[in-house]
Design brief:
With 601 residues, the chain is an all-beta fold. The chain has 3 domains: 8-129, Sandwich (Immunoglobulin-like), CATH 2.60.40.3710; 166-510, Neuraminidase (6 Propeller); 521-594, Immunoglobulin-like. It contains 1 helix and 44 strands. The strands form 11 sheets. It has a 5-stranded mixed beta sheet, with no helix packed on it. Strands 10-35-34-33-32 form a 5-stranded antiparallel beta sheet, with no helix packed on it. Strands 27-31-30-29-28 form a 5-stranded mixed beta sheet, with no helix packed on it. Strand 21 and strand 22 form a beta hairpin. The termini are far apart.
Length: 601
């Protein structure tokens, strides 16, 4: 997503000016506010010029040229005075950040002076206002589903894994290939990222601490390699505080991605951008704000909905967008809370996606609208839905409290979303997967396709609508415990749900190859003179069969039996032996992994 500004004409002018300065003028090391900016590449900065909600811990981002070309940067707060700091380069060498050695003072105006051509500023000097932030939202106590028979999966070889049980009620042969990625919440025993097969059997599960959950579990590509990503942490009132996780195909965590500028990563989005090295994340930032325009207090508390693009390798921000700089409070469908001590969640960001032109599309549940945002300026290009839509909404095209707005076709000609439709106040009688055709010239939005569940489902929150490679749509029904697949004709070809009241923020289908570096697990039981070997390998996707070996000593084992892999755990009857081990075999009979030798229990 990082834009490259390479105007050759300007580059020549810069080179010529540099020669003149070298031979005919004295270069000064320190810039002043009276000095005009030199001509050069157009540079985007964050906080943006005239930003009203910059964090006291903000880094000053410069994008559009190598960090070695930034020159001298002068930073002065109206109350905190001159700020020293250091410049750190972005990993793509096309920008960098000035990292102040001390925080800014809440409420002050900061003046930044450079000799750069700053986008949105009349010269190399620009200003921003520091927000008056409040402590982050307090995390809620974890909730648990009531126990009942069949609510979790059980395995002899992995008694530590007890994910929420699922039931598959429809599984046609025409479904897209791939596994189903889930993040069950408030499970009876544990929560965590989870992969299952189309028949409902477990493929991989990572239980998290009881006070944490996982959302947005999916397969992505990072730095050219396939990875699994998810958000994990705690939450309250639909807002998360945690971190994003990148795990390789061996299920080893290779990177934790955190929000910058003193914020916590929110649960709603973690998407690696098309360049494969940055990530789009969301955050909620409570600040003091005047709510009088919507009947609230002048010194109220409002959640600024924040998008950050993070350079994964360095942890630096390379782009930031703040809702309070661009979307007014009166765009919200809800009024401020009656208790002035409670934050007003007027926007409630729940998705952000990179469009094919590099700009962003942001979904806001509480304005019932999606916004296309310029990656260069942060300005809104168009608004879809809500009180001030740029598009005339055709019959059946209007939506409410939507999640997961995605681009389905180039040039913004088609978008999709999960249309929750449940408020308060309720707008629809049922939630749906929704696809809209957009005419950006005529500014019209028309219904292209929609998918309803049978029986009908109404979700007040969460949900997604994923476009699959074969033209199908995979829908996670959010608050409801269902996940479904529909073909291009709108026919249901797959349907499943959790056995109890669990839900998954989003549900996806992806192709995936898992190659765990752990050993296969084995449990051996002896009952009525007969032994059974229970073999499993959490996350392995290439095992086709198991070979069981046994003998009187762990160092002297011979083959007892082979069996085709059956679901997550395979039970194999064998003759009694003092020691038993299993080997996981691939499609050509090759050994993929070997368990430890175990004695019967």
């Amino acid at each position: 997503m990082k834009l490259l500004f390479l105007p050759r004409g300007r580059a020549l002018l810069v080179a010529a000016a540099f020669l003149v300065l070298c031979f005919g003028a004295v270069l000064t090391a320190k810039l002043t506010t009276s000095r005009a900016a030199t001509t050069g590449p157009l540079v985007s900065v964050y906080p943006i010029p005239n930003d009203q909600v910059a964090s006291p811990e903000a880094q000053l981002v410069f994008r559009g040229l190598p960090s070695s070309k930034l020159g001298t940067i002068s930073v002065r707060g109206s109350e905190s005075g001159v700020h020293t700091g250091a410049v750190q380069a972005d990993s793509d060498n096309y920008g960098g950040s000035f990292l102040p050695t001390k925080p800014f003072t809440p409420g002050e105006t900061v003046t930044v002076t450079t000799d750069l051509d700053i986008r949105g500023a009349s010269s190399g000097t620009y200003h921003f206002t520091v927000a008056q932030p409040l402590p982050p939202i307090r995390l809620a106590e974890p909730g648990f589903s009531a126990r009942r028979p069949g609510d979790v999966m059980h395995f002899q070889s992995r008694p530590d894994l007890q994910p929420a049980a699922v039931k598959i009620t429809k599984n046609d042969e025409s479904t897209a290939h791939g596994y189903i990625f889930l993040g069950p919440q408030e499970g009876p025993v544990s929560d965590g990222p989870m992969i299952i097969g189309s028949d409902g059997h477990l493929v991989w599960y990572k239980p998290l601490p009881r006070n944490e959950l996982a959302t947005d579990v999916r397969a992505q590509t990072y730095d050219g390699q396939p990875v699994i990503t998810w958000w994990q942490g705690g939450w309250n009132a639909g807002i998360g505080r945690g971190e994003d996780v990148i795990s390789n195909s061996a299920y080893e965590v290779i990177k934790y991605v955190k929000a910058a500028n003193g914020m916590d990563a929110d649960l709603h989005e973690f998407q690696i951008t098309r360049n494969g090295i940055d990530a789009l994340i969301t955050a909620y930032y409570p600040v003091r704000w005047n709510e009088s325009s919507v009947g609230g207090p002048k010194n109220g508390i409002v959640f600024d909905a924040v998008v950050q693009e993070i350079d994964i390798a360095t942890g630096l921000v390379v782009f930031q967008w703040d809702s309070l700089d661009h979307v007014p409070l009166n765009a919200s469908t809800g009024a401020p809370p009656k208790n002035p001590g409670h934050p007003y969640n007027y926007f409630h960001i729940n998705s952000v996606v990179q469009d094919d032109d590099g700009n962003l599309i942001i979904s806001a549940r509480n304005t019932s609208a999606a916004y296309k945002v310029s990656i260069g300026t942060g300005n809104i290009i168009w608004t879809l839905g809500g009180k001030d839509s740029s598009f005339k909404m055709g019959k059946g095209a209007s939506f409410a409290f939507q999640h997961d707005v995605e681009v389905r076709a180039s040039n913004d000609s088609e978008v999709s979303m999960f249309d929750d439709g449940a408020g308060p106040p309720d707008v629809h009688s049922a939630s749906r997967g929704l696809e809209l055709s957009l005419n950006t010239k005529a500014r019209t939005a028309t219904l292209a396709a929609q998918q309803f569940h049978s029986p009908s489902l109404l979700a007040q929150f969460e949900g997604n609508d994923q476009a699959l490679y074969n033209g199908d749509s995979f829908i996670g029904w959010g608050e409801q415990p269902y996940f479904s697949e529909y073909n291009s004709r709108g026919q249901l070809v797959f349907d499943g749900h959790f056995a109890t009241a669990e839900d998954s923020y989003r549900a996806y289908r992806f192709r995936w190859i898992g190659t765990p570096q752990t050993q296969p697990a084995l449990a051996v039981t002896l009952k009525n003179g007969a032994e059974t070997a229970y073999a499993s390998w959490n996350g392995a996707t290439q095992v086709t069969s198991w070979r069981v070996l046994g003998g009187a000593a762990a160092t002297s084992l011979t083959t007892l039996a082979t069996a085709k892999m059956a679901n997550f755990e395979t039970a194999i009857r064998i003759k009694p032996e003092a020691y038993v081990e299993v080997q996981a075999l691939g499609s050509k009979g090759e050994v993929l992994g070997t368990s430890q030798a175990e004695r019967p229990q």
